[in-house]
UniProtKB/TrEMBL annotation:
InterPro entries: Formiminotransferase_C, Formiminotransferase_C_sf, Formiminotransferase_cat, Formiminotransferase_N, Formiminotransferase_N_sf, FormiminoTrfase_cat_dom_sf, FTCD. Pathway: Amino-acid degradation; L-histidine degradation into L-glutamate; L-glutamate from N-formimidoyl-L-glutamate (transferase route): step 1/1. The gene is ftcD. It comes from Geotoga petraea. This is glutamate formimidoyltransferase. Its main location: cytoplasm. It holds the Pfam family FTCD.
Length: 297
């Protein structure tokens, strides 16, 4: 039986579509590999690729994509709304079919080791692959961002798992195994970033909010609005509708409204089903009632 692992690499390029396409080309037309989705955002200056495949094919494609990103992206001139520390900022592996978290952890270690040996890009292992408890949370690893990373990795506490020299052009990459994550953003009808930051503080776990929510305020300058940008790290325990309703409530305190939301990348079907159940008040709903679930069998 085929082993399938999902990977969602994030690259620090969201403005030059030619560069994005060249990076994504590494995932196209490959045996035992399927490119599911890729999206980019100019304000974040970031692209997110979603690909699934057998471990060896996935490993090869990811390493080649990092090489392309290293050639095309110069972090010394990079700027964007999203926190970042490298040209290839983060590479998560997620078990999908006939695979375990342990296999994803092993794959992450193999990839991290090769990125250093082949490209001299320092690598941190994070989430379930983390070599120490203080390295599990990606935001803690990324704190200081690219600009502060050269100094940070000299500290004993923050020495990379692979590599010991800062790569000035490509920065640092985080590689790890994790559970499915939903990138969920809520837009507000104001250009005041302070309001988005204050609301983010109310909903994110680190500030006393929802346990499985990471959040920050982001400016969407081309639209003249701001958003609460979230990573929902376990949608089964903190549902999308919970943070959405909390943001609506907090927005009223500041005299602003929610004007929309977005999903970045792919989303597990049940994350949306849970939200539909809540808003429609559906009783005793079962996943077997979803037509597409039978078509996929």
């Amino acid at each position: 039986m085929k082993k399938l692992i999902e990977c969602v690499p994030n690259f620090s390029e969201g403005r030059d579509t030619n560069k994005i396409e060249k990076i994504v080309d590494n995932f196209r037309g490959k045996k035992d590999l399927k490119l599911l989705d890729y999206q980019w955002d100019e304000d974040h200056n970031r692209s997110v690729v979603t690909v699934v495949g057998e471990p060896n094919a996935l490993k090869e494609a990811v390493i080649n994509a990092v090489g392309t990103a290293q050639e095309l992206i110069d972090m010394t001139s990079h700027e964007g709304q999203h926190p970042r520390m490298g040209a290839t900022d983060v590479i998560p592996f997620i078990p999908v079919k006939n695979t375990t978290v342990e296999e994803c952890i092993e794959l992450s270690k193999e990839v991290g080791k090769e990125l250093w040996e082949k490209y001299q890009i320092p690598v941190f292992l994070y989430e379930k692959s983390a070599s120490a408890a203080h390295r599990k949370n990606l935001s803690k690893i990324r704190k200081g961002q690219y600009e502060g990373m050269e100094e940070k990795i000299q500290e004993e506490k923050w020495r990379p798992d692979f590599g010991d020299t800062f790569n000035k052009k490509s920065g640092v990459t985080a590689v790890g195994a994790r559970s499915p994550l939903v990138a969920f953003n809520v837009n507000l009808d104001t250009d005041n970033i302070d309001i988005a930051n204050k609301i983010s503080k109310q909903v994110r776990h680190i500030s006393g909010g929802f346990r499985y929510c990471k959040a920050m305020g982001v400016e969407l300058k081309d639209r003249g609005i701001v958003q609460v940008s979230m990573n929902m790290t376990d949608y089964t325990k903190t549902a999308l509708y919970q943070t959405f309703e909390a943001i609506k409530m907090e927005a009223k305190r500041w005299g602003v409204n929610v004007v929309g939301s977005e999903i970045v990348g792919l989303v597990p079907m049940m994350a949306l089903v849970n939200t539909a159940e809540y808003y429609l008040g559906i009783e005793d709903f079962q996943p077997e009632q979803i037509l597409e679930s039978h078509l996929m069998e």
